[in-house]
Amino acid sequence: MTNSADFRQWGKEMVDYIADYLDNIADRPPLSQVEPGYLRKLIPEEAPHYPDKWQDVFADIERIIMPGVTHWHSPHFHSYFPTGNSYAAILGDMLSDAIGCIGFSWISSPACTELEMVTLDWLGKMLRLPDSFLSCTEGGQGGGVIQGTASESTVMALLSAKMRSIRQYKALQPERDQYEIMSKLVAYTSEYAHSSVERASLISSVKMRMLPCDDKYALRGETLAKAIQEDKAEGLIPAFVCATIGTTPSCAFDNLEEIGPICEAEKVWLHVDAAYAGTALICPEFRSLANGIELADSFNFNPHKWMRVNFDCSAMWVRNQTDLVGAFQVDPTYLKHEHEGKVVDYRHWHIPLGRRFRSLKLWFVLRLFGVSQLQEHIRKQVNLAHEFEALVRKDARFEIVADVVLGLVCFRLKGTDVENEELLRRVTKTGKVFLVGSHLNKQFVIRFAVCAPQTTSEDIHYAWNAITEETNSPLLNGITNVSNGK
């Protein structure tokens, strides 16, 4: 059994290993090169009966684990969106792990609850969210909570909207059965919303309509209003809209200023998913991307994406916490305490009962970076994205297919989907950089995201050279000729 002396020694070795790993991460291929099932061949079939030596465990990190790691913090990782990381966040998580509280109620660890309330108010003020979202607003009903992911936030918002709609219709027509009302509820989102939004509808058993977007891949108010009127004419009950600030396929921005008034007039819950782009709102020049947020019922973004906070830390705010808490409140005797009703008990704000002390890492990051350094990080990555965009535009073989607003560039060869898919496959196979594809207007496009904090201008040119080298390859030219009928 380990003791504090062992922990001190091994902990120092692990801190050095982590620092060396992050300092030299660019030397590792960004995408793991192993085949499925590789790991089982490298370890025994059963757990050890007697303890292994720390030296053997430590050695197996490089032998067994690292070959199967895709290095999200490599400056050559340009797929998906960023996942946050920093030494400040790691230190906060270390303390959270050591304290090891399960903060389901205020009494279970008062600091766990109260620090979360304060840091989310700090964060909300940084984003310039409406005062109605903040727990510090006198007489207000709003507040924030740290969820695990944006997916969980969407599920919570949709389930809350579902229960609110049922209560509203039961109040007007008490004779109606709750499950009959449920069968008529409808939710709406953009055709380019994240897949987790559609999954939320499956979990909540609420029908989801995926609505078409404009030429900027954004959902507009006119489209939503038409869909709502169509459904009402069919006797259905519009209950929920999920608008996105910074969609995954192209980083598009649904028009909140048009969508919000429609939701307010129709008494439809408006949830805003800003998982990636929300961090940018701390920069004054990007705050207008969220114009109209004051009419939202709930708002979410992931500090664990772009704000240097490591996973998991997804910030969610609601205008009226009663709508959230009222949908899920269950109070067994063993969870009651003398301050109940006077303080926040976060077990009512999310699906699991247990919760980690996640606000510690957020608090460490906000204090050790300050708003200014976080703004600098965002602006640097946006500038790097525009640098990559300029390289693409200089090559007549390529085209930019969506506005570059933040850290994502969507581009493609001027040609067929077959060519673009093959180009992406070949670039990935080199192991130099890692990108992924998507579809916009039913066309295959390649996404280039600036992800790692270490990414520099040299890395942008390195990635572009890796792409153009494969574009110039004879094999790709042969596919081009075949696809053009030559």
Q: What is the element string, with H for helices and E for strands? A: HHHHEHHEHEHEHEEHEHHEEHEEHH
How many alpha or pi helices? 15
Instruction: Report helical residue fraction.
Output: 40-55%
Classify the beta-strand content into a percent band: 5-15%
Cofactor: pyridoxal 5'-phosphate
Family: Belongs to the group II decarboxylase family.
Protein name: Aromatic-L-amino-acid decarboxylase
Organism: Acanthaster planci (Crown-of-thorns starfish)
Tell me what the structure shows.
This protein is of the alpha/beta class. Helix content is 44%, strand content 12%. The strands form 2 sheets. A 7-stranded mixed beta sheet has the order 1-7-6-5-4-2-3, with helices on both faces. A 4-stranded antiparallel beta sheet has the order 8-9-11-10. Strand 10 (436-440) and strand 11 (443-449) form a beta hairpin. The longest helix is centred in the last third of the chain and has 36 residues, at 359-394. The protein is globular, with a radius of gyration of 24 Å. Residues 481-486 have low confidence and may be disordered.
Task: Please provide a brief summary of the model.
The protein has 486 residues and is of the alpha/beta class.
